[in-house]
Design goal:
Helix content: 25-40%
Shape: globular
Structural class: alpha/beta
Radius of gyration: 19 Å
Mean pLDDT: 94
Distance between the termini: 18 Å
CATH topology of the largest domain: Quinone Oxidoreductase, Chain A, domain 1
CATH superfamily of the largest domain: Medium-chain alcohol dehydrogenases, catalytic domain
Oligomer: single chain
Order of helices and strands: EEEHEEEEEHHEHEHEHEHEHEHEHE
Number of domains: 2
Strand content: 25-35%
Number of strands: 16
Number of helices: 10
Length: about 300
């Protein structure tokens, strides 16, 4: 049996993406077939497409980590994470049962598909590593971004005092999510505006990471959530020299954490901001916007 999928046959720009009829994937042990209703767009998608993240091998493959859809054999409504070459930009994908969970009952397909990777990238380091609780002072860089705006809400749900860096135009949006203090990074150096931070969540890196060490308490922790690839030698060395805790985080999809995120959604403590929705055929446009780095919230493809 075949299906429609967005595929590519070479690394390159958004123009290499094409709709094609391909074989429907067959689940193996511990896997289930999912009829995809919506697929989230993440920065990692265009990095894989362009060859910057070669861990999945050469094309052809189907992109897309995040999905929301229906388990074909039981009819359950689920969401979770898959990986190329059998990604989520397709009518069907195959998912490992330990990387999916029940869809939040209060969210539609589009908003559910926007959650998995960004939600886990915010939830796992804040809750699993830093174990933030009431009264913790948490600084979130790029607070209006896909990971950042979810991290703001997760930290607030755990009783933290949340500080965010974002352009001034995004401040009202972030206040609406519960941010306590906001810094316009275009006009203010955050190291002059904040001190005594227990946790910094950093999806930016480079000099932002090094400067973030200056605002931490002696027992504080810098959470680098950029995934694999970037050179971290400078910040790692400086953190070690100061005796500060520095953690390189890599998202690992797990049912328990996806369940916890879904509960936060259903309890009204977490909502994902979807900036734009595109049909699968227009994924190239979504990739162009993602590469611009100016997207607040998330983008989603409908299948």
């Amino acid at each position: 049996m075949t299906m429609r999928a967005l595929t590519q046959h070479t690394f390159g720009g958004p123009e290499v993406l094409e709709i094609a009829e391909v074989d429907r994937p067959t689940p193996g042990p511990g896997e289930v077939l999912i009829r995809v209703r919506a697929a989230g767009v993440n920065p990692s998608d265009w990095k894989v497409r362009s060859g910057l993240l070669p861990r999945f091998g050469p094309p052809p493959f189907v992109l897309g980590l995040d999905f929301a859809g229906i388990r074909e054999d039981t009819g359950e409504e689920l969401y979770g994470v898959v990986y190329p070459p059998r990604g989520a930009y397709a009518e069907f994908t195959v998912a490992s049962v330990d990387r999916l969970a029940r869809k939040p009952s209060t969210a539609d397909w589009v908003h559910t598909a926007a959650l998995p990777t960004a939600g886990l990238t915010a939830y796992q380091p804040l809750v699993g590593i830093a174990k933030i609780g009431p009264g913790a002072r948490v600084l979130i860089h790029a607070a209006a971004g896909g990971v950042g705006h979810l991290a703001v809400q997760i930290a607030k749900a755990r009783g933290a005092y949340v500080i965010g860096t974002a352009r001034a135009v995004k401040h009202d949006f972030l206040r609406g999510l519960g941010a306590d203090e906001l810094i316009d990074y275009t006009t203010t150096d955050f190291t002059t505006a904040v001190r005594d931070v227990d946790v910094v969540l950093d999806p930016i890196g480079a000099e932002y990471a090094v400067r973030s060490l200056d605002v931490l308490t002696p027992d504080g922790i810098l959470l680098d959530v950029r995934g694999t690839g970037p050179d971290r030698s400078e910040v790692r060395a400086k953190a070690a020299a100061r005796g500060l805790r520095y953690e390189e985080f890599r998202m690992a999809p797990a049912t328990d954490d996806l369940d916890a995120i879904a509960r936060l959604v259903d309890d009204g403590e977490l909502r994902v901001a979807v900036e734009q929705v595109f049909p699968l055929e227009h994924a190239a446009k979504a990739h162009e916007l993602s590469e611009s780095g100016r997207v607040a919230g998330k983008m989603v493809l409908t299948v």
